[in-house]
Predict the structure.
Amino acid sequence: MIKKIEMVNYKSFKNTTIDFCSNNKPKQNIFIYGENGSGKSNIISAFSFLRTTMTTLTIHNRLDEMLKNNEDIDVKQLKYIINNHKNALATTVKSSKMIDCHNGTKLKYTFLIDHKEAEYTMEFKNDLITYEQLKYPLDKYKTVMYAATPDSLQLHDKLIKSSKYKDDLSSLHKQYFGNHTFLAILSNEYFNKNPQFINVEFPKNFIKIFMYLFHISIFYKDSVESGDYFVTGNSLLQDLHEGTVTQSSIKQLKVTESILNEFFTNLYSDIKNVFYETKTSKEKVKYKLYFKKMISGELRNIPHDIESTGTLQILKILPYLLSAIQGNVVLIDEIDSNVHDIMIKAIIEAVDDNLKGQIIATTHNTTLIDVLKHQNVYVIDINSKGDKEVHPLHKAGTQIHQNHNVKDRYLSGLYGGVPFTGYLDMANIVKKLSDTEESKD
């Protein structure tokens, strides 16, 4: 699980550390509140950033390979490659560093993996990585697995088995580090080498932390960059809306259909059935999701692509919620976007009752404060200079008593994280507009 993140000159955070623990133990569900533009999405973005930095070299080499081999590429695969290639390291760093700041950017992530603490640190300057370090126990105690700068690479004696492969990695470091992280270099090695070779060369604990980072699911979108990383099990389709599967995946299709039907028919009063319409051609099966809804006294089949934005949002986040219930770590930006307050509250209560993993989400939905533990509700508090502190409600400087209406107290501004608006004279604004139009005449 995620214990902590430290951000220095990252987007809107000058120097902020967020502790997701209680008594040094990671909390299972964290919901982050703050006024518009306070940086809620930037917190989720920091983990999307981590994932992007891990894949820059893999995507680059895969694109080169396809071009050399004149491979046939389907549209979805091409879009994935193009989107990730745009997020090559220099581009990603440039769009992520604090505006008008000439100092370096630093991100430090702390995780708890199999009851052991892991730390991963990256530092950037001039859109290039300048320092990188990974810490995790190789035996009993936490140790530096590797540390890298443009001029040096320090590998723990027990990290790589053969001296020849150590030399190979040192050569790759000289060739790629700066434009790519060393973890990106290792990722490319992992996914392109024989698995048996990797398992012999690397210790189990390194592979454990490496795979852990790849199995964090992230739902994050904004206008500058996009990061939508979801790790699914074998039981659920990757694309819930529509797509094509082989005949061997029919069981998976039926399981997904059954899950969606049970979830949506219990959540909505007007949805009576959820099903996939399928068309079989040779070895392929095309499928498309429909909602059977009661409208004006008749059951009508509504295709997913004309459903409400709120229903589609729920459909998007459902796999992430199921993943968290199964014990995985997920991060969701704007979890309540376009969803009714009562509905998202019902979903979160149901998830919380069965949660085995960890959810970190941003939200504006204050009804959730009524059902969440106060220590799991975080606010982004901003002082007069624009400096930010992110903390749980019970550490906001004012005590919380059992008889307090915490939601009302939050909305009144006692804990921070709410906007304080000035007086909007709309009549004067409209008058200026009218004066402008008159001056044209």
In short: The chain has twelve helices and 20 strands.
